[in-house]
Amino acid sequence: MKDLRQYFTFPDQISLPGRSDASENVTADVHNVSVQSDEDYVSSDSAPYVVRSLEDAIQLVLTDSIFKQALTDADQIFLSRFRELSEPAKLICSRLFGRVQRIFRKTDLSRIVEANLDEYMSELVSAGLFSATIDGVQCDTILKALNRQELQNLSSRYNIRNHKKLKMSELIATLLKISTGSASNCFFGKDLCPEARFRKHLHQVLGTCWCIESKRMRLLSGVLWLSGMGSDMAFGSPQRSKTIESQLKTEFYHMMLVRRGEIVYPSFQTTKKTTVYRSPDELQQYLDFFDCQLKLEYTVAEKQFDTATESFNSMRNHLLRLITDPSHLRTDVAGFLRRFTLPYRAFRILLIGIDLLERQKRYQDAVTLIRQVLFSDDGGYCTKASGTSASGSCPLDNLGPCRVGRLLIRLLVDQGSHLKQPKLALDAVRNFLRIGNNMKDGISACPCIRAGLRLELQEQLSKTVDILPGLKLPNDRKDVGLKPPKRRRSAVPSAEKENSNCDFSVVHIPDLVPDLLQAPKVEIRAPVNASSKDLGAHRPHYLWFENSESQSLPDESSSQSRSNQKDDTDTFLLTVEQWTLRYYTSRLGYEYGKYFVYLSHSGDYL
């Protein structure tokens, strides 16, 4: 994926929104990153970095014929007019990009540009980025944007009793009820209807204000997405974003780092151009789904389960159609590019929906949703009991990066553990992986599941088998490759005592991982000549004796101390990890970078 992470030479590498059947060999040197420019437009070096980043993204999209295919003619005209705006007007637009707030007062904008604010805002209104009225905004949205003083001023015009003692949520609810009151009085023509009167009072309370046009901001989001969709910075972020605009706003700073040369990508060669977004509608649908995903993630993280459930249920059927209907799958796109397609984004939203159902302990609904994804009854590409195809590829690979391992684990946990139906869960996993009587077939089944998930799935299969009544694992499969079980209570239940002498039938689970060899155990019983507090360390240190001719570990510096040298013997104080590495390299002949050691702490022993 590093081959795609370019901002300014991206169309010469992989042209995502358009298609070119002819193969091209283009070599790009990312050490000399420069923005394409024509004779009519040159980006100013003295402009703020947010303005320059937005200008570079627009310049990149408009100067490439393939990127233009993802935009309508009206969108291209708007972007061309945007480039002609003054720098302060662009600064206002760039600073407000990504904010959840839609209504901005004159005092808010004066913090960005102090002089000639009305002139610059008239430019933005003429360009269509802002509206000088708030008539197109819903009343509940306007009320949530008001501060307490403005809410109190509006409440005083309606003579609401004790409005200064009410909470803001109570004020908003009361005013919203007034704004949506009965309009029977306006029949006689003397008085305004409640909503018109409410908006009249709003204009008097707010004064001069502007409303941002969401459609134009979404267009700028599409420009940023096209110009930086190959960047690893545009996806994962530690903070939760409410909208796609706030998610893509970080690209301004990352593009500045590319211009400075602080982010340098290796040079590469491209031999083919691929279509991802075949029309402007397809791009807008993808952005809308991405925005829905971010909002759903935020509401779930904030534990607003009722709002999240209502939003998810409204689009659940449409999401399932996008995943199960073969006509929506983008098999014409390479596997590493399918994560930019609409079916993959719908699949990610479904994963959030499964997590939402599990958080509400609606395990039966979660199992039903997982089975609808894995086993489609309507003739979809994931037909029942046909998990992996004859070629060994997983059907979920057509969506993008495979998540079937996580789905199978959640199916075993929800249906096997929570719903107490382990037999149905085990049969579902075996049917999807198409594992017959030969348990070794599981090693080659669904190769898209990475090693860590395969081991976790193997462990969950073993735990599910333990739930089955009258069944147990064979002796050679109890401990190999499994995590140590939790500490059990000392008191054994009476039912377990009665069944201790009964005969159990042995059940065989599929082998999803090859045979694992356990690493040799090392016990540290070396004495410590001083406590950790006296050594100035927070952890115990152990003694290591070796000949002075032996070389020390390369990472042994401040964490160890050489104490004495007598009879050609050196003594070291090592931590438990350094002691173990020293043992493997000096005693057993292991080499660095070729082996993996799992350290298990138990008191002062390893």
From TrEMBL:
Molecular functions per Gene Ontology: 5'-3' exonuclease activity; 5'-flap endonuclease activity; flap-structured DNA binding; metal ion binding; phosphodiesterase I activity
Catalysed transformations (reactions): Hydrolytically removes 5'-nucleotides successively from the 3'-hydroxy termini of 3'-hydroxy-terminated oligonucleotides
UniProt entry tagged with the keyword Nuclease: yes
Subcellular location per the Swiss-Prot or TrEMBL entry: Nucleus
GO CC annotation terms, alphabetical: nucleus
Gene Ontology process terms (BP): interstrand cross-link repair
Main location class: nucleus
Region described as Disordered: 474-497
Bilayer-crossing regions: none
Enzyme Commission number, as recorded: 3.1.4.1
This protein's record includes keyword RNA-binding: no
Cofactor or coenzyme needed: Mg(2+); Mn(2+)
Protein name according to UniProt: Fanconi-associated nuclease
